[in-house]
Amino acid sequence: TYYSIMKNNESNAPPVRTAVEIFIKLALLVLLIAWCFQILYPFSSVILWGIILALALAPLYNTINARLKDSPKWTATIIIVIGLLILILPSWWLIDSAIQGARELNTQLEAGTLTIPPPEEKVKDWPLIGDKTFNLWQQASVNIDDFTTKYSDQILNFGKSFVSSILDIATTILQFALAIIIAGILLATKGTEDISKKILRRLVGERGDSIAKLATDTVGNVTKGVLGVAVIQSILVGIGFLLAGVPYAGLWAVLVFMLAVLQLPPTLLVIPIIVYLFSIMGTVPAVLWSIYLFLASISDNVLKPILLGKGAPVPMLVIFLGVVGGFMLSGFIGLFTG
Question: Which residues of 92-125 are buried (b: 16+ CB within 10 A; e: fewer)?
Answer without folding.
Answer: eebeeebeeeeeeeeeeeeeeebeeeebeeebee
